[in-house]
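Re: beginner question about structure tokens

> Can someone show what the tokenized structure looks like for a real chain? I only ever see the sequence side.

Sure, here's an example I had lying around. Input first:
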Amino acid sequence: MVTVYTQIELDRREKFVVVTINRPRVLNALSHETLDELRSVFESMNDERDVRAIILTGSGGKAFASGADIGELQALESAQEGYEHSLRTHQILFTMQQLPQAVIVAVNGYALGGGCELAMAGDIILASENARFGQPEVRLGIIPGFGGTQFLPRLVGRTRALELILTGRQITANEALDMGLVNRVVPAEQLMPAAEEMATAISQHAPLAIALAKRAVYEGLEMSPRAGNQIEATYFGLAVGTADRREGTSAFLEKRRPIWQAK
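And the corresponding structure tokens:
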């Protein structure tokens, strides 16, 4: 059965897929329905073994995602409803980080509030020169609830994160690059070609190695360095035990391209 999406578009390429938030008239605001569709498509990627990378972007050129749907936030009537709303959004972030594929986020305009948090849940962030980032929630009387208070300090450091969260100010793509929030800034017309080039490069490598490397990084970030190194050793051992490792080392010694089987 083919899933029909109304809030996002899914473009399948040979070894990667492009997921586009498609609500340009509202600057790709993240409504409940949009978030549900994003969760659905990401969950489906767990079983897509031929997909080696995912590019996430926004349509229209003006915004990656401008944040939460303010009307839906206004409708929240209690602390319990706010708590449950935040927990639901966190599930999407964890799903993205637990995917076996690399998730490349191509930010092509505003990435504010939930949009900035969604971008930070990706593995690699590319930004166009006109991209803008920010966590403006305090201006609405709330705090980031989509992972911002946790992801942002880990990416840019405590003091810079608190400055952005407490002032609610927007920063440019180049400021985000200087802070370590994004990996690279490119002209707007080069954003998707750059993302596709990176997805293609990643897709040429052993898929199990990509998945295990992601696990080691994300799980290690939650541990002490000693415990993290133990996790690394565990996943390194699992990689060594794969048929792909035998193929990779054999191909290198035989001076040929490896043929990965994801086994």
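Each token stands for a local structural state, so reading them left to right follows the chain. The mean pLDDT is 94.
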